[in-house]
Amino acid sequence: MENGGYNHEIPENANEHCPGPQSESAGKLDACQGCPNQEACATAPKGPDPDLLAIVERMATVKHKILVLSGKGGVGKSTVSAQLAFALAAMDFQVGLLDIDICGPSIPKMLGLEGQDIHQSNLGWSPVYVESNLGVMSIGFMLPDPDEAVIWRGPRKNGLIKQFLKDVYWGELDFLVVDAPPGTSDEHISIVQFLQATGIDGAIIVTTPQQVSLIDVRKEVSFCKKVGVQVLGVVENMSGLCQPLSDFTFMQMAETGEHRDATSWVLQCLREKAPEVLNLVACTEVFDSSGGGAAKMCEEVGVPFLGKVPLDPQLCKAAEEGRSCFADHRCRVSAPALKGIIEKLVANKI
Q1: What CATH number did the domain enclosing 114 receive?
Q2: Does 302 share its domain with 213?
Q3: Is 296 annotated as a binding residue?
Q4: pTM for the complete prediction?
Q5: Where in this protein does the record put region Disordered (predicted)?
Q6: To pair with 141 at 20 to 30 A between CA atoms, which of 69, 125, 241, 290?
Q7: Are residues 87 and 112 in the same domain?
């Protein structure tokens, strides 16, 4: 069934002459007899969902809506979402960042907002603000114990996502960035269904170069095509480990297998004999990209390739500390790569 079967279409297991679940006669006709969906169709409310109308009204003040997706967890999707939001805000755009990873919300930490609470006004739920032009909403702000697992079935997750969309008062936004959980599950179907009438600009898909990640990215691309969401492009994250040579730890291995720290000796030798070497950045592959990585996959499936972001320990540290990688020069390896990708996106959207 096209579009994931959520668009009020006839269920796959319906009888041959099904009138459709939204029909006034659904579940009541002779053709409905014996259908496994008969009772659900007969008792379900008919007509447009009033919550969807509320979402359309709420989203009317949001110019651009971008989903950030990944096929697998642990590829840096939330890091990309957070730094995208930081960068857009630094460009003087009004930005909202919505975290719909209900079971694993990491956005509050990556934005430096742990321990913050949601407040309510007569206009709705107020986002938690990093800056005056960067607001954030996440279930992470609603959990009394951050270590407590969120064990929710699909309908409850979907209900919260709907509530985020219809009840959060963002005000006028240039960009709403939606950080989704990995994969293609209830949350993804819900966010597309709820936002479809408001216009989704598209999705950014984050991956690593390894084949085991790219296999699932192909599924993510397929999902986007089926539900009618444009793929804005794919970001290859952790594309080789890169960091200044002076930041490395050098170890000397003994025949016994023991390691001895030789960093001070190596750096002293370099300072004395080749000081210019200390200004170099050393890079090495972490994941096997002999198959061409994300760039080749994008060419094969016909979606844009946005670029590569190296695995930068300083970027990891920025995410852990909840700060922008663009605020200083510590992320000198990864920040230029991310900036180029984001500028490309903005140029294509405006």
Answers
A1: 3.40.50.300
A2: yes
A3: no
A4: 0.84
A5: 1-27
A6: 69
A7: yes
Residues 214 and 127 in one domain: yes
- Structural domain for 207, as ranges: 51-242+285-349
Q: Is 126 annotated as a binding residue?
A: no
Distance CA 350, CA 339 (A): 16
Q: Which residue has the tokens 């919505």?
A: 98
Claim to verify: residue 164 and residue 26 sit in the same structural domain: no
The encoded tokens of residue 67 equal: 């989903």
Asked whether residue 242 is marked as a ligand-binding residue, the answer is no
The one-letter amino acid at 159? G
Q: Is residue 113 part of a domain?
A: yes
Same domain, 1 and 22: yes
Going residue by residue through the chain (350 aa), what tens digit of pLDDT does each one get? 344 433 445 666 777 778 777 677 787 888 888 888 777 777 766 666 788 999 999 999 999 999 999 999 999 999 999 999 999 999 999 999 999 999 999 999 999 999 999 999 999 999 999 999 999 999 999 998 889 899 999 889 999 999 999 999 999 999 999 999 999 988 999 999 999 999 999 999 999 999 999 999 999 999 999 999 999 999 999 999 999 998 899 999 888 888 899 999 999 999 999 999 998 999 999 888 888 999 999 999 999 999 999 999 999 999 999 999 999 999 999 999 999 999 999 998 65
75 is in an annotated binding site: yes
Tell me the helix, strand and coil percentages in the chain, rounded to 5: 40, 20, 40
Question: H helices within 92-242, ranges in order?
Answer: 107-110, 154-167, 186-195, 211-227
Does 124 show up as a binding residue in the annotation? Answer: no
239 is in an annotated binding site: no
Q: Is 331 annotated as a binding residue?
A: no
115 is in an annotated binding site: no
Q: Quick one: CA dihedral 223, 225, 227, 231, positive or negative?
A: positive
Q: Is residue 105 part of a domain?
A: yes
| Same domain (yes/no): 183, 137 | yes
CA 77 to chain centroid: 5
Query: Same domain, yes or no, for 29 and 166?
Result: no
Q: Is residue 337 part of a domain?
A: yes
d(CA 195, CA 2): 18
Number of domains the chain is built from:
2
